[in-house]
Specification:
mainly beta, globular, 7-stranded mixed sheet, 4-stranded antiparallel sheet
Length: 124
């Protein structure tokens, strides 16, 4: 049973930073073709924020390019999202996801099979 557990959310002022972490109960996501990503859901739609492949290739949503950085520590089975220069519109529940894509990691929620329960980020 694969588990993804997020942590690091909180309430901050605009312009400040947060780092989200996602610990996976398996090392499977480090294998070739696997991707991990961060998604946010401010209202009804879950949208991709950033994704990273087993080869460390990254993909970002336009709204976060230059402000957010996705990374992973394979030895710890942990995914990170460094969020800098936060804006009020970044306020949302943030979810960690993993899955086998087999090509460049995309930001479509339907591409990912495994999901964490989310961590809330509030920017005021």
């Amino acid at each position: 049973h694969v588990q993804l557990v997020e942590s690091g959310g909180g309430s901050v002022q605009a312009g400040e930073s947060l780092r989200l972490s996602c610990n996976a109960s398996t090392s499977s996501f480090t294998g070739s073709g696997y991707c991990m990503g961060w998604f946010h859901q401010p209202e009804d739609i879950r949208a991709g924020v950033a994704a990273i492949g087993s080869d460390s290739t990254t993909t970002y949503a336009d709204s976060v390019k230059g402000r957010f950085t996705i990374s992973q520590d394979n030895a710890k089975n942990t995914l990170y999202l460094q969020m800098d220069r936060l804006k009020a519109e970044d306020t949302a529940m943030y979810y960690c996801a993993g899955g086998y894509i087999g090509s460049r990691c995309d930001l479509a929620a339907t591409s990912y099979n495994y999901w964490g329960q989310g961590t809330q980020v509030t920017v005021s």
